[in-house]
């Protein structure tokens, strides 16, 4: 494996908290190309997150950790199975409890918890909604993950993070309610538009061709 002396995107976010719009654009353009290359090879990564985006000495990114890639097996599949079973049994009162916790903590609390949240083992924060629902899914799940990572780069925390993985699953299931900006976020309309085109139902989600043509990358 190539040595990546620049660390990873998570380390950069830990130090910086946020990236500028131009910095995020650079890394997301590279991430889009890397994801597309994985797809061209016939694989779906399924576990994209800042930890798995390495930064080489030359400043370009490298993807790593293909343990959940389709056609591979991983002990992490046990976590995935547990989350899927949980989502299948969700009731309306489960969401009411989540709303109560959010009202008490506030969206901005994500900034306060950020250093503690990094490198969380077995987190579904970046997982696409169709994976949790055990529906047939394909390479489009990776574009959802890119949208969540982009949000984290520009806002400072993952949009669906909660106190535990099951609460995160509940937020993903109701993503339309929880994919929102904190009051102090300064994000361009183009950036938010792209994220909404990635974090959405699979049938509406854009792929590499539309991503590369999106105004945010101009």
TrEMBL record:
Protein kinase domain ranges (all copies): 1-217
Highest taxon of source: Eukaryota
SUPFAM superfamilies associated with the record: Protein kinase-like (PK-like)
Keyword set includes Transit peptide: no
Reaction catalyzed: L-seryl-[protein] + ATP = O-phospho-L-seryl-[protein] + ADP + H(+); L-threonyl-[protein] + ATP = O-phospho-L-threonyl-[protein] + ADP + H(+)
Pfam families the UniProt entry points to: Pkinase
InterPro entries given in the database record: Kinase-like_dom_sf (IPR011009), Prot_kinase_dom (IPR000719), Ser/Thr_kinase_AS (IPR008271), Ser_Thr_kinase_AGC (IPR050236)
PROSITE patterns, per database record: PROTEIN_KINASE_DOM, PROTEIN_KINASE_ST
Enzyme Commission numbers on file: 2.7.11.1
Keyword terms, alphabetized: ATP-binding, Kinase, Nucleotide-binding, Phosphoprotein, Serine/threonine-protein kinase, Transferase
GO molecular function terms noted in the UniProt entry: ATP binding; protein serine/threonine kinase activity
GO BP term (any one): intracellular signal transduction
PANTHER family attached to this UniProt entry: SERINE/THREONINE-PROTEIN KINASE, SERINE_THREONINE-PROTEIN KINASE TRICORNERED
Protein's recorded name: non-specific serine/threonine protein kinase
